[in-house]
Amino acid sequence: MTRPVRSSAVSVALLAAALLAPAAAMAESVVALRTIRPQQVLTQGDVKLDPATIAGAHDKIDDVIGQEARVAIYPGRAVMRGTLGRPALVDRNQVVELIFDKGGLVITTEGRALARGGVGERIRVMNLSSRTTLFGTVAPDGSVIVSQ
Fold first, then answer.
1. How many secondary structure helices (H) and strands (E) does the chain include?
2. Domain 88-146, second-level architecture
3. Does domain 27-85 have CATH number 3.90.1210.10?
4. Confidence (pLDDT) at 41
């Protein structure tokens, strides 16, 4: 024959389990300390961690330090994902070296960047010789590796 469990015994068991379970870590959000202008690279003095949890905001300062703001971020506002990117190495209208390398054939010429871009980003460029618009990936040395 089974004995019915009293509700106070269940409450005590649940309370004990809750006290013994590890506490959930509180999430934090990265917040701007001062106005951050577009194209500004973030430094340690620009941001801080705030104990509030804001959906879509960065939660680690290391993820934002050294990144470039794509839009203005105002003091006290959370630094949202998608508002930062790699620092631009190539500016719009800058003359860059275009490199096409396929199957042992290497063609190098000058081009004009039609967008800003950081290392590894795909941007549009115009070949200055033929006036053809192409896409390429920004290389660490500032040249653009043309894909077509």
1. 1, 11
2. Roll (2.30)
3. yes
4. 94
